[in-house]
Write a structure and sequence with these properties.
By secondary structure, the protein is α/β, with parallel strands linked by helices. It has a domain at 96-340: Type I PLP-dependent aspartate aminotransferase-like (Major domain) (Aspartate Aminotransferase, domain 2). The chain is 41% helix and 12% strand. The protein is built from 15 helices and eleven strands. The chain has helices spanning 2-6, 8-24, 48-59, 82-94, 106-120, 135-154, 158-161, 178-186, 208-214, 237-244, 284-287, 302-309, 338-372, 398-410, 438-452; strands spanning 128-132, 171-173, 194-196, 220-225, 249-254, 279-283, 295-299, 377-379, 387-392, 417-421, 424-430. A seven-stranded mixed sheet has the order 1-7-6-5-4-2-3, sandwiched between helices. The radius of gyration is 23 Å and the shape is globular. Belongs to the group II decarboxylase family. InterPro entries: Aromatic_deC (IPR010977), PyrdxlP-dep_de-COase (IPR002129), PyrdxlP-dep_Trfase (IPR015424), PyrdxlP-dep_Trfase_major (IPR015421), PyrdxlP-dep_Trfase_small (IPR015422). Keywords: Decarboxylase, Lyase, Pyridoxal phosphate. Its cofactor is pyridoxal 5'-phosphate.
Length: 455
């Protein structure tokens, strides 16, 4: 280690050149590779940085996917902007723990970045927030605060007395993401507390009238969607806010990637009402194009959040009106995730990220139009924002759709995720990478034709 420390400038320069070669090669790199690698035993004697980099390049790098590249359309995966990569590298170099105030300005940088993000999504001063690892943890934090709110309605503290003090809980949603069920399990509310509410005909958006019928006056939680997984459908947030004025419930909005519609004047109406939500989830390593792992959570009830996550240890200090993040999220220590976001927002501003959103949306519509004209393929939903959901025209069984996905990946030109939309096995292409261009859509469509025409 001390030898590597003496050579640190050269070591970092070598790493920089190697990383640059990876990033510049993304457009031509096979999008996915699935060759398994057998495990090796723990080294007893190290081989130094140069040896480690050489071994990594030979043994592991060839099997890494081009998930950061322009034609990886599985899930909703952004790449990393140049500025966010620089910010992420500096995060490791400075190695700050922003969860506690320890003589560093890192927590203040996070607070500033959270305020920027709130402004980006149209949230007001009443919303406070913190960085977490991803949408799953963001939903977990939001629902944990909602759980404490349910206790408040009953005159109990779940944080102190346990979830048993609540009794039966109802969580209503139209098309909840799987992470919501995971969060309910972790929080002790149980997956069975999730009550699916009918959606509008041909939509994934909740039927607000049916929801109103199911709310009986007992305090409940409603999980709304600002961008569903398969079709990027949006619940009518304004109608839900109006309903909340007549029925008693906590409104949590899962805006993991759909919240970025706020950046586009053409689509901002989809998140009208978001500023009235009690808690909000937004995933930043999706459409903001910062490195994994990075998300943010917002709530209007920081006082309840503090009750849930307060860390009672003398060496960590007491919570104040401006509590350290150690008292606000599940983690006592973590890296300065905010720095990559601060860099990309500072470097490219609202306008630069608006361009990414609008370009990705236009590219998704382009692919949707091409698929609509392709005999072997059939759209399952109109393209609403940045996801194209489609299936095979002929006999789209689960096995045949899975085979189509394997063939598409085997071209090396793109990767699409499989899904089941309203009972129909399907494929979905999610556009969220800042690098993706119209020429990539042509390459993707050609791969679909090659893979699916004779299925």
């Amino acid at each position: 280690m001390l030898d590597d420390l003496a050579d640190l400038p050269d070591l970092l320069d070598t790493t920089s050149r190697y990383a640059a070669s990876v990033l510049t090669g993304l457009p031509t790199r096979p999008v996915v590779r699935a060759a398994p690698v057998a495990p090796s035993p723990l080294p007893e004697a190290g081989i130094g940085f140069t040896g480690a980099l050489d071994l990594f390049d030979r043994r592991w790098a060839p099997g890494f996917s081009a998930a950061a590249g322009p034609r990886y359309l599985g899930f909703v995966t952004g790449g990393s902007t140049p500025a966010s990569i620089a910010g992420d590298w500096l995060t490791s170099a400075f190695d700050q723990n922003p969860a506690a105030s320890d003589g560093s300005s890192a927590p203040d940088l996070e607070r500033e970045t959270v305020r920027w993000l709130a402004a980006l999504f149209g949230l007001g001063e009443e919303h406070s927030g913190a960085f977490v690892s991803g949408a799953t943890t963001s939903n977990l934090v939001g629902l944990a605060v909602a759980r404490e709110w349910l206790g408040e309605q009953l005159g109990v503290s779940v944080a102190d007395e346990g979830v048993g003090a609540l009794g039966p809980v109802r969580v209503h949603s139209g098309a909840a993401h799987s992470s919501v069920s995971k969060a309910l399990s972790v929080l002790g509310l149980g997956r069975d507390s999730l009550r699916p509410v009918p959606t509008l005909p041909g939509r994934e958006a909740i039927d607000v009238d049916r929801l109103a019928d199911e709310l009986d006056g007992t305090p409940a939680i409603v999980v709304a969607n600002a961008g569903t997984v398969d079709t990027v459908d949006f619940d009518d947030l304004r109608a839900l806010v109006d309903l909340r004025s007549r029925k008693k419930f906590w409104l949590h909005v899962d805006a993991a990637f759909g919240g970025f519609a706020a950046l586009s004047p053409r689509h901002a109406h989809l998140v009208d009402g978001l500023a009235e939500a009690d808690s909000v989830c937004v995933d930043l390593h999706k459409w903001l194009n910062v490195p994994y792992d990075s998300a943010v959570q917002f709530t209007r009830r920081r006082d309840l959040q503090l009750k849930v996550f307060r860390n009672a240890a003398p060496y960590l200090g007491q919570p104040t009106d401006n509590p350290d993040f150690v008292h606000l999220t599940p983690e006592n220590s973590r890296r300065l995730r905010a720095l990559a976001t601060w860099f990309t927002l500072t470097a490219y501003g609202r306008d630069g990220h608006r361009d990414v959103v609008e370009r990705c949306t236009a590219l998704a519509h382009d692919l949707g139009d091409r698929i609509a004209r392709t005999p072997a393929l059939r759209l399952l939903s109109p393209v609403l924002l940045n996801v194209v959901c489609f299936t095979l025209t002929h006999d789209p069984t689960r096995e045949r759709v899975a085979e189509a996905a394997r063939r598409i990946a085997a071209t090396g030109d793109t990767f699409l995720a499989t899904t089941v939309h309203k009972g129909q096995p399907a494929l979905r292409a999610a556009f969220s990478n800042w690098r993706t261009l119209p020429t990539d859509v042509t390459t993707v469509h050609n791969a679909l034709i090659t893979a699916c025409t004779d299925l």
